[in-house]
């Protein structure tokens, strides 16, 4: 059966491992944080606000500047203030510029302004990307006072001796490797696995090749048209979930999302479609509603760090800036290379695993990979990236 026809799908069972549990270590031994952040908002549920109410405190703020400096530079405490700010002459290497340079903040801001902004910046700026350090209990009140005491000492501009250390002049990263060269991209091992899985007989005595004897022809443009709204599931269906549900209905194989065979088959099908423009079907009412839901979800503040997708990936907010040593890119250009080899993790990720890691990065509980919220976001991103050409497997840091 050609993929353009109505493909058989199993529609009753989850397409991912159940009950869903966050990765402790991935296939290469990289660890994932295991903290439960269920008291904070996720893509599935908005938690009650934790604004801390009106605090009473005396000014001037008394604290220990040395302890505050240590807290500000501690990467274990929310990524550290240096992820977003330059903080005077002692700034550690590779500071970010998501937030303003704070090297002279002690000479320009009052004690109460500094305390309020560190404790809960939403009181002064509802769209701030800065975490509510106090209100979300990343720091306690004495620690907030110490950070304020440190900020009060910052009164002289910082001079960068190396333009590559200055986030305003640092050169954006550019990977020169050929992701379609098997000697450069370790994900090509998964391509071979995908080809093998495509031809392997399943429990029903059939393989993918039994119906698709010429996959290079049958699937030439298919991955470029995904994801799509699937009325039988009443949600957006991506390539990886399609593999799971179609295999169950045809070969009888159980190829759960984010399993090695699922990733291999996804790379195989995307690789066939390389050079094809991304062109999801956005013509029906259900797809349009899904895109709108995805856009709304990308605006939602999530997790203990209280960040939204748009905070990092739109020019209007902080795209094309640095979060310490990580360059934040815009939404456009973020889809065509999946599944992709993540050099920083030593692993292959499909796009849903990328979404999960973004959730964990802002300290929000992630969802199972077949969650409908991820499907809505995937379709919204495909709409933004319409016309970009499939180029998989990719390489990204």
The average pLDDT is: 94
Domain count: the total is 2
User: What is the SS-derived class?
Assistant: mainly alpha
Strand order of the largest sheet: 6-5-7
Measured as a percent range, the helix fraction is 25-40%
Question: How would you characterize the largest beta sheet?
Answer: 3 strands, mixed
- Unreliable spans are none
Count the helices. How many?
12
Task: Give a verbal description of the structure.
The protein folds into two domains: 16-48 and 174-397, Cytochrome Bc1 Complex, Chain D, domain 2 (Orthogonal Bundle); 65-151, Cytochrome Bc1 Complex, Chain D, domain 2. 29% of the residues lie in helices and 5% in strands. The protein has helices at 65-72, 111-119, 141-151, 188-199, 208-211, 215-218, 239-250, 260-272, 285-298, 309-313, 351-361, 372-384; strands at residues 228-230, 235-237, 322-323, 326-327, 340-342, 347-349, 394-396. The protein has a three-stranded mixed beta sheet with strand order 6-5-7. It has a two-stranded antiparallel ribbon with strand order 1-2. α1 crosses α3 (141-151) and α7 crosses α8. The two termini are 38 Å apart. The mean pLDDT is 94.
């Amino acid at each position: 059966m050609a993929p353009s026809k109505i493909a058989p799908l199993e529609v009753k069972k989850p397409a991912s491992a159940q009950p869903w549990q966050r990765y402790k270590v991935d296939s290469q031994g990289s660890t994932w944080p295991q903290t439960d952040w269920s008291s904070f908002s996720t893509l599935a549920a908005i938690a009650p606000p934790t604004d801390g109410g009106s605090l009473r405190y005396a000014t001037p703020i008394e604290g220990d500047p040395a302890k505050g400096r240590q807290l500000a530079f501690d990467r274990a405490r929310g990524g550290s203030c240096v992820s977003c700010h330059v903080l005077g002459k002692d700034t550690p290497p590779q500071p970010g510029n998501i937030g303003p340079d704070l090297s002279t903040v002690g000479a320009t801001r009052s004690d109460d302004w500094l305390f309020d902004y560190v404790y809960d910046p939403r009181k002064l700026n509802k769209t701030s990307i800065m975490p509510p350090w106090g209100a979300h209990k990343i720091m306690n009140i004495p620690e907030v006072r110490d950070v304020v005491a440190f900020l009060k000492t910052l009164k002289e501009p910082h001079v960068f001796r190396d333009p590559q250390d200055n986030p305003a002049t640092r050169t954006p990263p550019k990977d020169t490797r050929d992701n379609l060269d098997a000697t450069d991209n370790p994900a090509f091992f998964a391509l071979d696995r995908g080809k093998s899985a495509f031809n392997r007989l399943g429990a029903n005595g059939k393989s993918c090749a039994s119906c698709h004897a010429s996959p290079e022809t049958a699937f030439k443009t298919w991955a470029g048209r995904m994801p799509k709204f699937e009325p039988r599931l009443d949600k957006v269906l991506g390539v990886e979930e399609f593999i799971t549900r179609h295999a169950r209905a045809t070969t009888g194989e159980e190829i759960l999302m984010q399993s090695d065979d699922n990733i291999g088959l996804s790379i195989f099908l995307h690789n066939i479609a390389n050079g094809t423009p991304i062109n999801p079907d956005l013509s029906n009412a259900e797809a349009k509603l899904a895109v709108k839901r995805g856009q709304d979800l990308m605006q939602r503040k999530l997790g203990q760090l209280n960040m939204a997708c748009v905070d990092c990936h739109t020019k209007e907010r902080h795209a094309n800036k640095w979060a310490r040593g990580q360059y934040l890119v815009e939404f456009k250009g973020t889809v065509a290379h999946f599944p992709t080899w993540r050099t920083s993790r030593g692993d292959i990720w499909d796009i849903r695993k990328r979404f999960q890691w973004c959730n964990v990065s802002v300290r929000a509980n992630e969802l199972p990979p077949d969650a409908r919220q991820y499907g809505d976001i995937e379709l919204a991103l495909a709409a933004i990236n319409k016309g970009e050409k499939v180029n998989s497997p990719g390489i990204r840091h």
